[in-house]
Here is the input.
Amino acid sequence: AEDDSHATGLLEGPHYTRPETFRDWSVPEVLRSGHAANIARWRREEALRRTWQRRPDLLLTAELSEEDRWFLGKLAAGER
Here is the structure.
């Protein structure tokens, strides 16, 4: 699929399932909302965050949108 880590050049974001809370870990509200566009953006941001934290070298060759670059700028500034 086009969202797989090998296709996007980024690490995958976290995946959640039921129940909504497990061992004091809760599924983020955005995932429970059912709003497809918000969920897609959250997943993209989490993939960017993980890649930035664990494999920043991958960001050098990843295809990034202006929105992605803005988000990474906020991460670098410590805002998120």
